[in-house]
Amino acid sequence: MTPLIFIELTAVIVSAIYGILLAVRKGMDVMGVFTVAFAVAFGGGTLRDLFLDRTPLFWIGNPHYPVIVFVISLLSGFLLGHLRRIRPLLPLPDALGMALFTLTGTAYASEAGTGAFVAVMLGVITGTFGGVLGDLLCNELPSLFVPSPLNATCGFAGAWLYLGLLHFSVPERYALGVGIVVIVALRLAAIRWNWSLPAVREKGGRDHSGT
Amino acid sequence: MTPLIFIELTAVIVSAIYGILLAVRKGMDVMGVFTVAFAVAFGGGTLRDLFLDRTPLFWIGNPHYPVIVFVISLLSGFLLGHLRRIRPLLPLPDALGMALFTLTGTAYASEAGTGAFVAVMLGVITGTFGGVLGDLLCNELPSLFVPSPLNATCGFAGAWLYLGLLHFSVPERYALGVGIVVIVALRLAAIRWNWSLPAVREKGGRDHSGT
Amino acid sequence: MTPLIFIELTAVIVSAIYGILLAVRKGMDVMGVFTVAFAVAFGGGTLRDLFLDRTPLFWIGNPHYPVIVFVISLLSGFLLGHLRRIRPLLPLPDALGMALFTLTGTAYASEAGTGAFVAVMLGVITGTFGGVLGDLLCNELPSLFVPSPLNATCGFAGAWLYLGLLHFSVPERYALGVGIVVIVALRLAAIRWNWSLPAVREKGGRDHSGT
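YS: structure for the whole thing
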């Protein structure tokens, strides 16, 4: 199993768990839970595959992926009882899934011959779109653009770091490892200490309340 | 005309009618009505064709489909006067469109050689995505995951039944017919008697209100 | 540079500026501003390329496009100070981007051999989807279907005019020029004088408030 395949499977599983936790909080039935888990686990990679014209889609070419997500969803009632104790750790599957998908997206795009900037963009889209879909399905405002958690920004930084390490001939598995650790650490730190980038403001004009 | 083509055309027409009824209720103009009808009629099949890499998209390869939806939309003011009497039957076009699209999606995916589980998932996506788009465009909360109408669940059951009948060598047109009747009946019964699946709850833990 | 390429680049830039103005109004940070600018500038054309199976996507095949949008986003704080004086002209980038994308979408679809009606539909989708995405990301109700600004309707009329001029052997650059001027003029006039199409109402029935 190559590192990318292993990372992808892990990303699917932790993203599905994150989706289940989102959906259960909303009181959904088992089919709703499965739908949200499916969307969070496969949404980002589906956009990536469509944008890069990769066929078949990764969850059609690996048909055990949706089966795994379905089984986890069926068992979610039982799993949740055990997950309760680790609930303070909840941001972890979200951050880990985002990191793993961001780097697989960057890697696949880069292999397909896109330029570095486009590869990073595809990585960020792959890493964040599942979460945006999950928020939409749960009727929450997408949290992507709320400044504090810096979701896309952490992925953006980690994807550049990964490409930079590859550029300096670091072996892929180390570049992936460093990228994952940095993205997850940045994201958890951003949540823990409530980091945010400043809002963009007009420079060189007096303040005035526009529309 | 093969059964699948006939079913697809019927699904487009009943979905467009359902979209028109959604849009008129919101006081939209004729272009808004057409847009919602277009999205409901073609949204699910478009995702299916993109996911399976079928080209051209079914409404580009059958360019009379969008023209039919446009003409129905232009006539919607007149049609509505006559539809008024059958308004209590409104859930029917919704349920029928969902059933027909679910089975065409399952059939196309199965023909394309996906496994059974992926074929059922593509059927459910094809059957439900148009309605989700219609809800979004009409600024309603998507009704897919509200437990009571069991929308995706009925399609999921019917798609497995259809594949099961094919597996036991039932001719396709009978398998399609049984699938359609079962999905529509399940869905109308779920609405009529307000069936729902239970919400997923944590097993083995005391109740506590977390966020 | 062919006229279509020049028009596409202009459409990307004015759409990005419109996206930046949307995002800044919401107090987003620079990554959020970039994301909205990216979605508004590339959303419609991405759908068009996916629907027509054009590969690579126009912003992957022209990798300087996303870089340009990124640079404009980074500079947005400074640009906004200078844009302040022309704020009463804000509807212009929106109308211009919509017009340019509508005509490129119609032209590409027509070149790909779709029928005229499908080409016009793809033009309207290309012209309007970016704005819908921008509204969604900024948590606004999509303005596409609010009757007053007639957004899709102006694009629909201009796309037919463009195809009609080509049909009567008008050279493409003149047909594009006339189409752009007409769409922008219609859209600005619709905003200025608050034009709207009437809501669709049931004909031949007494009024009654149903749900």
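YS: worth flagging: Chain C has one domain: 3-197.
IM: good catch. Also Confidence is low (pLDDT under 50) at residues 205-211 of chain C.
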